[in-house]
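Morning, I've got a small favour to ask if you have a moment. The fold is given in discrete form, as structure tokens running alongside the sequence. I'd be grateful if you could look everything over and explain what you see. No rush at all, and the record is pasted right below.
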Amino acid sequence: MRSVPDPILIEVGPLVRESVASLYSHLVTRPTGRAVRLAIEAMLAEAGEPTITLVDLTEITILDYSCADEVVARLLRRYSEIDRPREAFFVFRGVQERHREPIQAVLERQRLAAVSRRDDGTAELLGTLDEDESAVWRLVESEGVVPDERSDDVFGNGSLRTAVDRLVERRLIFADATGGMHALSRLVAPVAT
């Protein structure tokens, strides 16, 4: 368990231009995606722990499947493994319709899920969750935070309680030191303007 950290913003467009010396914000080759992911990981290594990261895809004009795999799926998988290099949580912003298909496809194939923050401030899930996980995520998202003293009232003691633990493990909600459950979209709100 941990305290709620200040969020950090990582703008992927400038990273593409810096990492691969390109004038364009296109993520279209696996080496480009790998370079961007490694740049993100280097930035995370400099940040405090745990890290709540808003990954901004707004400036990305083209995102192919291999880059969706490198930048989104591999990043999520690496930081949700038991031997992860650090405590990190991710929210993606600027996911446009043209990005959605490749991201959704790689997340579904690998049975991963990610929180995406829409331009209007609402959040959505991309990827795969079971019915109980989806229900719990929606509950936490609507509340913003569920304090420990309210968790039995909100989640009960059955399958929803088990789904809470899975969502924490999958890095889709944040558990603070007091047992409170936080919606990731609300935690990145200070940098999401």
Summary: The chain has a mean pLDDT of 90.
